[in-house]
Amino acid sequence: MMNKLVRFGLLLVMALLVMSAPVAAHEGRETGDYVLNFGWQVEPAYAGIMNGPELRVRVEDAPEGEAFPEDLEVALQAEVTFGSEMTTISFRPAQQEPGHFVAVLVPTLPGDYVFRIFGTIGDTAVDETFDSAAGEFSKVEPSADIMFPSMGALDARMAALEARIAELEAQVTELQGE
Question: Do 29 and 38 contact (CB within 8 A), yes or no?
């Protein structure tokens, strides 16, 4: 009985340690009078699933809970790089959340992505680079890790259907030749 209680206690402590471990989700950075907090909208990010980056901007010395100035013009874009490929996306304000900006992106391949955020916040020029390889926000994971049924099962079903279609086409051709 005592042995079971000790094991249960150890499992409980281990579970609490795992749950309280810090998770890399967003990277913070100061730019001029602003603090930028950057990462994926949903962490971890998975290949082939709509996600996109998000950016939270706050005035550096603003008191806690003070709203983001609504009249502050924010015009930011991101140059996204994966390997040798690059695209540019634009941030737009998130609904009902002053200082929160999002962009649409479907990361199609697993791996590390680099985001160069550029533009302006008010009169402040912004040119910051965030790299998932640094570990502050997640790299893109393979979607096979979370998909069910697996893509392999889907591929097998498609191959079987394609074989059946080819068989039926051959039969049609044979019947037309008679």
Answer: yes
Do 83 and 155 sit in the same domain of this protein? no
State whether residue 24 is helix, strand or coil. coil
Same domain, 81 and 155: no
Q: Are 108 and 48 in contact (CB under 8 A)?
A: yes
Q: Summarize pLDDT for 125-170 with one digit per residue, the tens.
A: 999 999 998 888 889 999 988 888 777 777 788 888 999 999 999 9
Question: 26: helix, coil or strand?
Answer: strand
The model's pLDDT over 93-126, given as tens digits with 9 standing for 90+, comes to 998 889 999 999 999 999 999 999 999 999 999 9
Instruction: Give yes or no: residues 102 and 43 share one domain.
Output: yes
Rounded Cα–Cα distance for residues 77 and 92 (Å): 9
Q: How many CA atoms lie within 13 A of 73 on its CB side?
A: 7
Q: What is 67-83 written as a DSSP string?
A: PPPTT--EEEEEEEEET
For residue 28 the two structure tokens come to 């913070």
Give yes or no: residues 171 and 121 share one domain. no
| pTM of the entire predicted model | 0.70
Q: How many helices and strands, by DSSP H and E, does the chain display?
A: 2, 11
